[in-house]
Every structure is written in C-alpha cells, then in structure tokens.
Amino acid sequence: MNSFKRDNVLCHILLYSCFFLCAGFPVYAIDYDYHFTTKCLEEPLNPQYSGGIAKNPEINDGLNGWTSFGSSKIETRTSKQGNTFIVASHRTQPNHSFSQTIHVEKDTMYTISAWLQVSHGKADVVAMIRTPNGDIPTGWAIAKSGCWSMLKGGFNGNFSGPAELYFESKDISSVELWADSISIQPFTLLEWKAHQDQSIEKTRKSKVKLQVVDHQGQPISNATIMIKQTSSSFPIGNAMSYHILTNTGYQDWYNPRFKLTVFENEMKWWETEPLPNKDDYHLADAMLQYVQNRSILLRGHNIVWENRDMLPQWAKDLPRPLLATAIERRLNSLVPRYRDKVIHWDVDNENMHFSYLESQTGENTVYYYKKAYDMDKGALLFLNEWGTIENPNDIVASPAKYLAKIEEFRTLGYNGTLGIGLQGHFDTPTIPYIRSALDILATANLPIWITELDVSSRPLQADYLRDILGELYTHPGVQGIMFWSPWQPQGCFKMCLTDNDFNNLPTGDVVDDFMRRINHQGLISTTNHDGYVETSLYHGDYEVIIKHSAIKHQSFAHKINVAKGKDSSTLVMKLSA
Predict the structure, then answer these.
(1) Are the C-beta atoms of 91 and 176 separated by less than 8 Å?
(2) Residue 450's closest CA among 291, 236, 232, 203?
(3) What is the helix, strand, coil percentage profile of the chain, to 5?
(4) Which of 373, 384, 403, 489 is the most exposed place for a label (fewest CB within 10 A)?
(5) For 371, phi and psi rounded to 5 degrees?
(6) What is the pTM of this model?
(7) Between the CA of residue 519 and those of 231, 421, 429, 438, 470, what are the distances in Å?
(8) Residue 515 has pLDDT above 80, yes or no
C-alpha cells in the first residue's frame, strides 16, 4: 500500500461478515463501503476495497495493467509528498485517457471509485466501461486542478467476458487527466442482498426487549405477546388524481394503502390559473379537504416550473416584466393559501434541466426558495429533479452536479429548509449506480426523498420496480418514497398499479408486497422465565396485546413506539399488567 496516501480509518471496511443463510449454508459478503467525500484533498485516500479487481490500483507498479485509450500519452508522475499517479496527456478526443481490461461476470454488481484531478481548471469526468454491447457510463466527478476529487459509481454485470475501464471528459484542450486509488469491486447478487438486509437491521429496525410484569413488578413467564404495527415511521405515498373525489372504486383501493399523497396536476400553475389573474382552486381545495378528512399528509407540487412547456399557455410568451409579475403573483397566491397544509413544497421544479424562468426574468431560482420559505417556514422545501439516480448518462443532474446546486443555494444566501427530491422515473435501472448516487447525495446531510417513483412500461416492469424499491428503502440516506401512479381512466403517466376496475396489476402486487414486508403484522411470541421477549421491530407505532391466565381479564394491551436510537443498543420496555 502506498504509504503516502491518507488512510480513511473509519470507512475503510474490508471485514468479511456472515449475514444470512442460503440453502443451509452461510453466505459471506464483503461489507459495502457507503463512504464518499466531497472534499478536494491534497492527496487521495486509499482505494476502496484495496482496489478490488483493479490491477495496480495505486499506480505503485509503474504502468502495469494500464494502457493508453485512444491517442493520449500516458505516464506516471510523483507528487512532492511521494505519491505516484497516472496521467493522460496530448488528448484530442473526450475519451482519450488510460484504460484497464477487466473480466466481467454476468449477474454481478460492480461498484467503482477513483480519485481524479485535471492539470488546470475543472472538468466533468466520467468513468466508462466498454462492453461488447456498447459503452456504459458508471459515475461522474467534477475534477479540479490542485487537489483530488472522488468519483463513485457502479454498473450491472449483464454479460460475461472482457470489458475495458476508461475515463472521459469533454474538456480536451490541453487538459491532462490524472487518476489514482482506482477500485472496481464485484458483488454477487446474494452479497448485494446481504448489504440490504444488514442496512434494514441497522437503519430501519431496532432490537426491542419487552418484559411483562405483574402489578407488584414481578416477571410473568409464559405470557403470550401479540405485536401488531399500527403505523410506520418510514413514509410511503402515492400521487392521486381528481378522480378520487367521485370514484368510489378508486377511493376503496387508495385509502387503506396510503397516508401520504401529492396531487398529480391539480396544484400546478396551469390548473390553478388557467387565465391570467383568474384563480381556480376548486379542484385543489376539494382534494385537500378529501385528504384532510382521512388524515392523509400532502406534498405541495409544484409552485413554479422552469420548463417553458409546463407553464400556463398564456404565460409562455410573456415579456420579461410581465412574466416576473406573474411569477410573483403565483407565489403570493399559492403558498399562503396552503401554508401549514402541506408538509413539503417542490418550489422550482427541475431547475437543473431547465432555466426558462431564470433566463427570461434574470431572477435566480434561489429567490423563489427564499420567498417560499418566508411565507411557509413549516414546510420542507425541495429541489426536485429527474435523472440523478435513474440515468448514468445524465450529466446535467448527476449526483456531483446536484451537490454543486445545493452549494450554490447556500452561497447565494438561502439558509432555509432544503430537501433532496429525486423523481425516480426509471426505464431499465442500474442498481449499483443508484446506490452510489445515494451515497454521494447523503453527504449533504439533507433529507432525501424519492418523489415520483415509477417504471416505464416494458418487459420485467414489475421485477424492475421490486429491485428499485429494495435498493431505495434499504439505503440509509432515503427518508421517504412517493409513487407516481395516479389513476386516470385513459391510462397513467408511465406506470399504473391497477386496471380500471381497481384490480392490482403486477406492479400493484409489488407495491402491496413491499408494504407488507416492511411492516409487522401478527407477530406472536412467549415470554421466558424472566418475563422477557426479544425481537427486532421496524420503526413505528405498535399495539402489544398480552395474554396470560394470571392476568385479570386474561389480557391487556399496550401502545408502544419504536424509534431509532442514538446507538445500536437494545430498547428495553417494561409492560405492566
């Protein structure tokens, strides 16, 4: 190991752990390393997983394992501190860099990390994998001159055979690419599932020790304990359309499942102000009353939208002063009306992909957040973007760019509440990329919500949805999931959960199964000789019914709350008869 690299003591996890049994035999897995840092360092950290299957990951053995990709010149250099790294110079195409051939196994998950630097300025750099089926982007970094930036990503092994890792940047004019501490770590599907199971136990559940005692405080042995979860601490919701106001079949399907919602269109600008200065909130108000009567929480979506196509027709060609006035009126009309009635606001929708309002008015998007925060300090204000976790090709809203946008907000003086909204409109998912993207975003220490989850219609749609849910729910950074499947008689946006008779489609079965699996219903156990029952419970509220012949009236009930503690110690509760 190169002694000049900084060692990441806390997160350099390479211990082998047994997580679960498969066909009677223990399955061992290398712990997944969730670590990422946004700091640009004088020297790179050691490679994750000691480089995994990458040959010569720390460039301590000259150029062994590395070749030139394209017509670039590659060489090794050594820093003043004695650290050796690889350099690609004389680049004339974006993909001219250094490369290494690896062997990919089908049905294997791969995570990639590297430390990057450029000779001057800064540049977007992507790690690519060349396969027989085409070139795959795996992860992005904003590389800078004078310090080392971390890249993290991943890809699915969907074939077996040789592949080539290389790096790409469109900034080619005399810009050299430097790299060090490069890691490629494979995980089997069983190992990947083991990481998810471990994360659930660590972040979504707590160990609970219940003791049943009589009125004198003496333990009651052989008491039957029945545990039923009445609510979950992890919010899961689904968008709804105005049809829920009149369609009883829709109501009967929706209401038992979801206690969190967002209106598909009814709060959007074109719906609430179809003509200039003529507000029409009748649908939004009626839907608000509907959800309030049923204790369903509501996300506010959205205040304004940077995409010109999503403006009211009358606002699309307004001259600059009139557009600015119209936006101001929109803010002053919508936010106070629903203040304290929504838990979130998607303030300026998709402002990384689009910038029509900003370009036309000259007003930075931060202004809308400051204004909304001043009017409704009780709601959490969100950025809301697509592509960040769905599409490794999306450089505009890459995880690194998302963090840069957050930094821009703070630099421009926005100090109010802020959440990371990830829409999650998937086609074919890249599960390792999703995990790495969430690792990166979690470093902002802001709430991460999946705000519009769906999978486009395609073979394996339901299977993809199941895989995506498994990854999102088990990541410690995610705090809530919203499905984007509001029912429409003519068909849904991308993904329906039911047919028009409100019978579940395969995707609806996936959602129901997912929600059953992350809740405890009907757990039954018996206290030991000291009156104890030990178990692991999902965070949330529970009703505990205790039955024993020595108990007056034979049984009694307790309500308890299980929440994540400050450490992993067991939560001990004494239940008195």
Answers:
(1) yes
(2) 236
(3) 25, 35, 40
(4) 489
(5) -65, -45
(6) 0.93
(7) 8, 25, 26, 24, 14
(8) yes
